[in-house]
Write a structure and sequence with these properties.
With 105 residues, this protein is α+β, with helices and mostly antiparallel strands. It has helices at 16-27, 59-77, and strands at 2-9, 36-43, 49-56, 82-87, 90-93, 98-101. The protein has one domain (2-101): Alpha-Beta Plaits. The chain has two helices and six strands. The strands form two sheets. Strands 2-3-1-4 form a four-stranded antiparallel sheet, covered by helices on one side. A two-stranded antiparallel ribbon has the order 5-6. The longest helix has 19 residues, at 59-77. The chain starts with a strand and ends with a strand.
Length: 105
């Protein structure tokens, strides 16, 4: 598994309500993306930074998708995002009550 952390500065301050509306509108584009397991939308406490945490099954799929996501962020928010890729060898899932290990990594 691969986890990708994306962070970028917003052109102004975004309230939680504004972020919720924008993130809900964007959420559909992340459904049924090949290899994407989960995406978290992020907003800093002061509303000046946003981002996402993505969990992927494969690095090649993550890298291909994030090339497109970078361009979308640049176009929509005028910001070049910071994108960091992490190997994710173990996941603790308290909702499902299990620990998942990526032995293929």
């Amino acid at each position: 598994m691969i986890t990708v952390l994306v962070q970028f500065s917003l052109p102004g301050q975004l309230s939680r309500a504004q972020a919720l509306a924008q993130f809900e509108m964007a959420a559909g584009q992340f459904q049924n993306v090949e290899g994407l397991v989960r995406k978290y939308f992020l907003l800093s406490e002061d509303g000046r930074q946003a981002g996402g945490v993505y969990l992927w099954t494969r690095e090649d799929l993550a890298r291909r998708a994030h090339d497109e996501f970078r361009a979308q962020i640049k176009q929509r928010f005028g910001a070049d995002p910071s994108v960091t890729f992490f190997q994710t060898p173990v996941i603790v899932d308290n909702l499902l009550g299990k620990v998942e290990t990526d032995k293929a990594a």
